[in-house]
Design a protein that fits this description.
Layout lengths: L6 H20 L10 H14 L1 H4 L8 H40 L6 E3 L4 E3 L1 H16 L2 H15 L9 H42 L9 H38 L1
Antiparallel strand pairs: 1-2
Length: 252
């Protein structure tokens, strides 16, 4: 009994798997520690087999040195794409951090080993809600589809022009900061007006010591107004998911 192995097919799938695993380890929602490493590896292997018909067509096996270079290039491409998606989704986490800062919750800041973020209550709450919405809405499927489509724009072993992803990362950073301000902006304005009102009261009647009410008032306003942001969060996650997929396509 003879067993014939198609080494070119195996090499192509292996290169695709390297790009997949580099992406999954960095990009949300798969980067969270809720996914064990073996599950991430199995998911990367399954996705590599799913795109095998696309990546194996026209693949020519290089020599040993060329194959090692291709492995490094695929890891870089997957890491760049994953970082780009992570950067876009950081807008929601940054919005939560702004709310914690202006609402007075940063005193309870701590590190969450599950989500691998350092922040207070709303930073972690916004991040967990965004991840939950990604799975509930099927947004993760859109991200995987965008990753699979990159094999058509960036063939395996071909590398990528670093000027293009760096430009995309720069634009995504500005968009992330703008999105964070747009999400948390209304609440920040209300909290600023509350501080200004307490300052005016203190100026008019210093004996009242209105600033002593600053923390309780801002915490109350934050707890009353944050539910309004959660109403809009599904649409925000949907928009950010499409932006992340578009940025991945732009890199190619």
């Amino acid at each position: 009994m003879e067993l014939t192995l198609d080494f070119e097919w195996i090499e192509a799938v292996m290169l695709a798997g390297v790009r997949m695993i580099a992406f999954i380890v960095i990009a949300p929602p798969f980067s969270t520690n809720a996914f064990p490493l073996r599950i991430k590896g199995m998911l990367a292997l399954g996705l590599a087999l799913a795109v095998a018909p696309r990546v194996t067509t026209g693949y020519v096996s290089p020599d040993t040195g060329g194959f090692i270079v291709s492995l490094v290039l695929e890891f870089v491409v997957g890491a760049v794409l994953g970082f780009l998606v992570m950067l876009v989704f950081s807008a929601i986490q940054s919005a939560g951090a702004l709310i914690d800062l202006f609402g007075g919750f940063t005193l309870a800041q701590g590190f969450d080993p599950q989500l691998q973020i350092n922040g207070a209550q709303f930073t972690r709450l916004f991040q967990m809600t965004a991840l939950a919405l990604l799975f509930a809405s099927g947004g993760y499927q859109l991200i995987i589809t965008g990753l699979a489509n990159t094999f058509g724009a960036i063939p395996i072993g071909g590398g990528v022009d670093l000027a293009v992803p760096l430009e995309a990362i720069t634009a995504a950073t500005g968009q992330m900061l703008l999105s964070a301000l747009q999400i948390a902006g209304p609440l920040i304005v209300v909290l600023f007006l509350a501080d200004a009102g307490l300052g005016l009261i203190t100026r008019v009647a210093p004996a009242l010591n209105a600033f002593a009410l600053g923390f309780p008032v801002k915490i109350l306003l934050t707890l009353l107004l944050v539910p309004l942001l959660f109403v809009a969060l599904p649409e925000i996650v949907n928009s950010i998911t499409r932006t992340a997929v578009g940025d991945m396509a732009g890199v190619g």
